[in-house]
Amino acid sequence: MNHHNASKEKGNHSELSSRNALSNRDDERLKSGNGSSGLGLAEQLDRPCPPAGSNIHLVSVSDIEESFSNLHAEIVEDGKDDDCEMDELGEDHVDSQLIGSESDDKKEKKKLNRHFHEKESRSDNRGQWILNQRMRMQKRQLKCRWDIERLNTPFLAIYESLIPLEEEKAKQKQLLTMLEKIVRKKWPEARLYLYGSCANSFGVSKSDIDVCLAIEDKDIDKCEFLLKLADTLQSDNLQNVQALTRARVPIVKLMDPVTGISCDICINNILAVVNTKLLRDYGQIDARLQQLAFIVKHWAKSRGVNETYQGTLSSYAYVLMCIHFLQLRRPAILPCLQGMDPTYSVTVDEVECSYFDQVEQLNGFGSQNKETIAYLVYAFFNYWAYWHDYANDVISIRTGSIMR
Fold first, then answer.
1. For all residues of the chain together, what is the average pLDDT?
2. How far apart are alpha carbons 99 and 106 in whole angstroms?
3. Are 52 and 37 in contact (CB under 8 A)?
4. Is the confidence at residue 328, as pLDDT, over 90?
5. % residues pLDDT > 90 (the chain)
6. d(CA 49, CA 43)
7. What is the distance in angstroms between the CA of the first residue and the CA of the last residue of the chain?
8. What are the start-end ranges of the H helices in 163-255?
């Protein structure tokens, strides 16, 4: 058994070496053929390559401060007055009982009984709601543990353990280089983009890879194209190749038998590529965002609340929650990039995507806020458990505030 495993590992190593040799030979050809940036698919692991946008103008630091000065957050108290409900039955209902026929009288009695039953049910629900709000208000008054800072080191250790190793990144690049060669051989004009957690800087260790294959054809039949793509990939010895044409976003799933890495490929989902760039730009402003997002995603996965098909939130949603939360801190840790003078602008499927992407000018933006990762983890869960009004409020990182 050990000899067999050793032989298998040796074979995998040989195949990886062969791939590296082929990769070095064709790198320049791939770079010259993928979009205006010249970045190959594997290189996008370190630097996303979204569709070219318009660099509108350079923005000075004073302009940044001015454009951000109007940003405000509105956190609404949940306590509401316990108003008495008005009885919806008027005198006309009583009069109708006196002059109506016997059948009408029975109908009216049923209507009355149904009304009072519904009112009683509403009263019970409102009573439970008021009790829950009072408990939330009491929880808000609780102070954070005095020794919360002792958790800084353990939290940072968790964060560092989730960062993908260089060896893992190398395997991802080998798979992506091979995929690019296969696709380019069949569809030379295709453009390939990385998107999702593997490219937005919020991908933890052993994350899957998401690839967008862009085809300049508005009338393309995505399902038919995905079936052809699946056949092409399967003929190149990739394993577990499946074309999921009925999914909300149709994809081809596959796994590389050499690296063991899984990959999903979609067609013309360019908006997701632009979103990837936006999140990555946010991640470069303050290190605490990536630290918080890694820890929250790790918690969500451990608690089984990180699967959309089970009715829970996606990793993308948790990252948005972290960005929103850090935008609301006072002093703010993150700015609202879409609320500032835009330096990147692109239109995707008639959706205008514009925001300030010169994030190197925002280094130290949140330096006035001294909150540590330990305190931020506590404050994050406190905010979402006791402060956010789930019935009325919608978070928006586009505005940097709460919408109603």
1. 79
2. 13
3. yes
4. yes
5. 53
6. 9
7. 62
8. 166-186, 222-234
What is the per-residue pLDDT for 51?
Answer: 74
Which residues, in sequence order, are bridge partners of residue 264?
A: 210, 253
pLDDT of residue 257: 84
* 368-372 long-range contacts, CB within 8 A, separation 24+: 368/331, 369/329, 369/330, 369/331, 369/332, 369/333, 371/288, 371/329, 371/333, 372/149, 372/152
Rounded CA-CA distance 138/152 in Å is: 27
Q: At 214, which helix (H) or strand (E)?
A: strand 209-214
How does 294-308 read in b/e, with b if 16+ C-beta sit within 10 Å? bbbbbbbeeeeebee
Strands 209-214 and 262-267: parallel
pLDDT at residue 112 tops 60: no
For residue 331, whether the previous peptide bond is cis, meaning omega lies within 30 degrees of 0, is yes
How many angstroms separate the Cα of 264 from the Cα of each of 194, 213, 255, 351? Answer: 10, 10, 9, 24
Burial 309-319 (b: 16+ CB within 10 A, else e): eeeeeebbebb
* pLDDT tens digits, 134-160: 777 777 777 888 899 999 999 999 999
Least confident of 99-108, 123-132, 297-306, 327-336: 99-108
Please give the Cα distance from 366 to 356 (Å, whole number). Answer: 16
Token readout for 108 is 């009216």
The predicted pLDDT at position 313 comes to: 96
Report helix, strand or coil for 281. helix
Give the max Cα distance, the chain. Answer: 97
The half-sphere exposure of 113 on its side-chain side, counting CA atoms within 13 A, is 6
Range from 98-107, 264-273, 381-390 carrying the lowest mean pLDDT: 98-107
CATH architecture of the domain with residue range 65-75+275-403: Orthogonal Bundle (1.10)
Q: How far apart are CA 87 and CA 119, in angstroms?
A: 9
pLDDT at position 11 over 70: no
Q: Are 238 and 254 in contact (CB under 8 A)?
A: yes
Closest C-alpha among 295, 289, 302, 297 to residue 314? 297
Domain boundaries, the chain: 65-75+275-403
Rounded CA-CA distance 335/399 in Å is 10
